[in-house]
Amino acid sequence: KVQLSKEARALLTASRRKKSQLFKTALDDAWTHIDESIKTITSSNGKSVRRVQQDLHMGQGLLWTKRAKLSMWNAFCWKKNQTTDKENGLSGKAILQDLVQENRAEYHELDDDTKVSILKEYEEFKATKTTGTHISTKSKVNNVTQTLKAVKNELNSLRSQIGAETILYTMRSSTDLPLCGVAFTTHGIENFMESVMNVDNQDPVGKMEGFAMSGICGAAQNHQKHCSNIHGLIRNLINKKLQDITGDPDAKMQWAHYWRNIVQCYLVICTGWPDEIPFENLSKVSSSLADLEMPKWKWRSGEIHWRCLENEEFERLHRERNEKLDSGAIIEHRRRTRSDKGKKRTR
What we know:
It is built from 14 helices and 4 strands. The chain is mainly alpha-helical. The radius of gyration is 33 Å and the shape is elongated.
């Protein structure tokens, strides 16, 4: 291992710092040119700055924008706060109220030279303070959305050029990001998963999301446990609301015999069920977290609810059901015949 002398290490450090400064300066100049181009496009085409930035897929650049111009009022409040008695004076929000009430007239009487002097002092003070960047949740979602939009455009362009087909799944790996899973396929294999693999696109998205959130070890079991917990929660919501509307504390939802044991028995019907989810036991329908979360929140909000039936409406629904049974549109669930039917059983 080569041991550098003290002078060599100092030269190497100075060289690295110089290169780093040049790199930062080059980046700042590039962003300045981009900002000027955005302003030019905005003014000449009548578009907003945010619209131009989004079309340029600069969602990440939106996270870095911050106010550059100093406020004279903020500088004046800072100057006054430096001269107040902090030990015996007010604290918290009362400081700002006291500043506004007692020094408003003095602020309006300031001449231009005094304002420039205060702003200069405030600028020097701000340069010594460490600043942080707050990234909002909306900015994160916008950044992901615009990036995915650019990726989709590139994949479609690649397909048109060389005929490459692509399946893209994107999901969150943290609960801090309120992002729904996205499944994208190019035109040539648009229905491949549903028709050939017999798998809904949201199923792998939901499972991969659970896998990413829970980690590698035991992710599949954690996803299954999560789905089971949501099943139980939805089941309890359905039964609780059914008991409330019927007045029967023992009433329970029966998916297989819904018409006979629920509608016909209690004269109630489930209203508001989403069309994209089949009306049957959720354990058989889907294991996608997105499909399970939807009915859960709709039952809680009341969008899905039990509704009492009048006798005329019940008779109409009963006739429609009989017509569907006769045409074979629906099949009535029946108990399976015992295997020892017709045989004498010994006691």
